Amino acid sequence: MCGIVGYIGERDAIPILIEGLKRLEYRGYDSAGLGFFSKGALNIIKNKGKVALLEEKINGHNHQSKIGIGHTRWATHGIPNETNAHPHFNKEKTLLVIHNGIIENYQPLKKILIGDGYEFKSETDTEVLVHLIDSFLKKGVTLFSAVRHALNQVEGTYGLAVLSCGEPDKIVVARKGSPLVLGIGENENFIASDVSALIAHTKQVVYLEDGEIAEVYKDHFRTKNIEDEEIQKEIIEVTMSIEQIDKGGYSTFMLKEIMEQPESVLNSMRGRLVHDDGTSKLGGLESVLNRIANSKRFIICACGTSWHSGMVGEYMFEQYLRIPTEVEYASEFRYRNPIIHPDDTIFFISQSGETADTLAAMKEAKRKGALVIGICNAVGSSIARDSDAGVYIHAGPEIGVASTKAFTAQLSVFALITLLLARRKDMSLIDGKKMVEEFQTIPGKIEKILKLEKQIEVIAEEFKNAKNFLYLGRGYNFPVALEGALKLKEISYIHAEGYPAAEMKHGPIALVDENMPVVFIAPKDSTYDKIISNIEEIKARKGKVIAIATEGDDDIDRLADYVIKIPETIRMLMPILSVIPLQLLAYHIAMKKGLNVDQPRNLAKSVTVE
Ligand code: F6R
Asked: Pick from 216, 451, 491, 540: most CB atoms within 10 A?
């Protein structure tokens, strides 16, 4: 949420910063700005709207700079406008700050600063930081000390970057609860909230930890903690490539990521299936496997789409492992003093690995002594690093704001964990081998479903003007109904609800008339007959039915208005297949409405604020 990028070196900083901001735009896109040294003075250029508008504005100036920082914003305090956009100046324009996160005690700090004569121009919490740092600088301390003293007074979260005319050879950065990474180059260095902004220039990175502050010069950097103690940081090589974060010939990141799923699901399983033993191998869990297997209870904790994948995980764990499993919203879990035992294993699922609620819930679970497992996509992210053990889903960078390939890769990892543990319990070698073989068919089956895109586009055309949608499923496909509804709301702004199909008659059926499209996830499984009765109930009330059914099921054709037929698989793996048509349906409805699917209104990738 919000993006930060910075450059210090011998090259022209401005194009590097603009390019970095474009890479980060998926993290927030309501305004953008740059702060940089030019002709010995600090300058700010910023505006409301996308980075492309900022670029146009900057092209109208003739600035040369070798040190600068940039920001793309997702508004928390104050509406998206030029004044509230970052960076923010002090009065004399000798100090500027960009900030991700939320300063929780900004009101009392602001009162004190106003009492000291400071004037505030914006409605942001960030401006407090500028004046606070300025107040320490005026006492004659170094920029590093001023930042450190200011942060000691601050409650909340920050990823922070600061430039000062008094020390024009450095960028000072700090992190607490909002990611910051340094990129180490040859006689040039970078800072960013996300490695995707740096990897065009360097793959050598240093992840800052909470409570760390760094001074970044063009040829070296220095790190201390907030107590002023020197810290040695390890330089890590990242494996992400620039091709992975480009659109690769697709018109949108979302479509590229939907289409990548045969490969991303394959990558999530690659090297992890052991056919001869009918099991899986997950290196990241080996050290804690006994503890997981002996757990009395599992909890799965996440937000949004990751929470939906957790619900599927619950069904898998309970069906195959018979270990009681609860699925929790991270935002609720962290605040309600949850009952946690040392023999609980808690799985924290997060694509970004930076979601503030999930991270805080994980810290709470650790404090209470549970075993904490991270299931993340972003390599080196906070949840991945702070968990006791974990598994990467290896979906590759997900840039489209609506999560697609991360969801299916998360489901794949849940299935791998289930197989691994089930084989230590009751599952036979023969059943394990059969399951491995079924896993191996999934990427090919996804490929087959993706070929139905044209058929789904026709359905999208028919329903693009609907005001409401219902999504219904049973068992493993109930979370898929929730996920299908979430995808549609996020990118098409059509109101959509997901429900367990049987719950429909306890309320939502009142909404059904000839204007209500109802999507049924109705593969041939043990609940098939029941779901057919639910379809009959909708048809009796003139609702329009779109069914996701199993290939070869011709009975459903006479009932549903539209049928999308997908290959068969075992129940546990069905959500990986059944969600794909729903992603495509949401995508094509939004595109037909002329909407920006990669950057839907009000949303941002990676929600690093509460
Ligand atoms: C939905 C979506 C969000 C995220 C949620 C959690 O398409 O992207 O609902 O799933 O914000 O994010 P992560 O998985 O990064 O913790």
From this structure: 491
With a CB cutoff of 8 Å and minimum separation 6, the contacts of 41 are 93, 165
Estimate the share of the chain in helix, then strand, then coil, as percent rounded to the nearest 5: 40, 25, 35
Residues facing 471 on adjacent strands: 498, 519
Residue 606 in contact with ligand 1 by CB distance below 6 A: yes
Pocket test for ligand 1, best of 351, 362, 387, 405 (most atoms within 8 A of CB): 351
pLDDT tens-digit readout, 23-43: 988 777 789 999 999 988 999
- Give tens-digit pLDDT for 497-514: 999 998 988 988 888 899
pLDDT value at 604 more than 80: no
How many angstroms separate the CA atoms of 590 and 575, rounded?
22
The CA-CA-CA angle for residues 107, 4, 184, to 5°, reads 135
- Ligand 1 centroid to Cα of residue 73, in Å, is 18
C-alpha 447/C-alpha 28 separation (Å) is 32
User: For residue 460, how far is its CA from the centre of ligand 1 (angstroms)?
Assistant: 24
End-to-end CA distance of the chain: 11
What domains can you pick out in the chain, each with its CATH number? 3-243 (3.60.20.10), 247-447 (3.40.50.10490), 452-610 (3.40.50.10490)
Please state, in angstroms and rounded to a whole number, the distance separating the CA atoms of residues 450 and 581.
8
Nearest CA to ligand 1 atom 4: 304
From the number of C-beta atoms within 10 Å of its C-beta (0-12, 13-18, 19+), residue 211 rates as middle
**Is ligand 1 within 6 A of the CB of residue 350?**
yes
Q: What is the DSSP string of 423-441?
A: HHTT--HHHHHHHHHHHHH
Query: Tokens 């902004």, residue?
Result: 197
pLDDT of residue 1: 65
Per the DSSP assignment, residues forming a β-bridge with 7 are 68, 190
Residue positions counted in the chain: 610
The C-alpha atoms of residue 476 and residue 311 are separated, in whole angstroms, by 8
Which residue's CA lies nearest to atom 3 of ligand 1?
304
CA quadruple 280, 284, 289, 291: dihedral sign: negative
Residue 323, Cβ density class (10 Å: 0-12 exposed, 13-18 middle, ≥19 buried): middle
For 61-119, give the DSSP string.
S----SEEEEEEE--SSS-SSTTTSSPEE-TTSSEEEEEES-BTTHHHHHHHHHHTT--
Q: Which of 309, 403, 489 to mutate to test the pocket of ligand 1 (most atoms within 8 A of CB)?
A: 403
Does residue 179's CB lie within 6 angstroms of at least one atom of ligand 1? Answer: no
Q: List the catalytic residues.
A: 2, 605
Q: Which residues pair with 269 in a beta bridge?
A: none
In angstroms, the CA 149 to CA 139 distance is: 11
Model pTM score? 0.86
> pLDDT tens, 552-566?
999 999 999 999 999
| 306 CB within 6 A, ligand 1 | yes
